[in-house]
Design brief:
The protein is mainly alpha-helical. Helix content is 41%, strand content 10%. Strands 1-2-3 form a three-stranded mixed sheet. The protein starts with 11 loop residues before the first helix and ends in a 24-residue tail after the last strand.
């Protein structure tokens, strides 16, 4: 009796049995679909070439005709990182980092030379300017900058801009200090 025939002499008994390998393959395919991967057909020695082609992989690069991710093909780092950021909900922290890193690009080289971002809390960006004139100028440009941040980084990443003037000089010169009003005869 041949191996593929059942006890009754036909292959119907074996077709009705559960194939463990096929069940495992189906589970893996379902898991891949749940992750958003798309199943594509790959040409090879076991798969007949599509009609109208010269056959095989000669003259063709692997995956040259496929438009999307085939599951096992390498992906670009940008698309992998983008998918990871979206899956883990890191969009807002990444946007905050991009405000700090892309400051010169977002505001322009002239403004960036005189104003630097200090901190980012919730949706408020604190910016320190090196003179009161630049602080005033940045306050006047704040609505245009917020519009640009919304366009470049996404809405609701930066909702308000807090502009700070230059910090006052510190008169502390050493590790030890004396309590009191501070230096009174400095400008005298």
């Amino acid at each position: 009796m041949p191996a593929e025939l059942g006890p009754s002499g036909n292959g119907a008994d074996q077709r009705n049995e559960v194939d463990a390998a096929q069940a495992a393959l189906n589970r893996v395919r379902q898991a891949a679909e749940a992750r958003g991967e798309v199943r594509t057909r790959v040409t090879g020695s076991l798969v007949p070439p599509p009609p109208g082609t010269a056959g095989g992989l000669r003259g063709r690069r692997r995956g040259a005709g496929s438009g999307g991710y085939g599951g096992r093909d390498p992906q670009g780092l940008g698309s992998v990182m983008g998918r990871m950021v979206a899956e883990r909900g890191w969009s807002s922290p990444v946007a905050v980092g991009s405000v700090m890193a892309r400051w010169r690009e977002l505001v322009g080289p002239e403004v960036a030379a005189h104003c630097t971002p200090e901190s980012f809390e919730d949706t408020t960006l604190r910016v320190r300017c090196d003179s009161t004139a630049w602080a005033t100028q940045l306050r006047l440009l704040s609505t245009a900058l917020l519009d640009r941040f919304a366009r470049e980084l996404g809405p609701d990443v930066v909702r308000s801009l807090q502009v700070l003037g230059p910090s006052a000089p510190s008169w502390r010169k050493g590790a030890r200090t004396v309590r009191g009003r501070g230096p009174r005869d400095t400008y005298g």
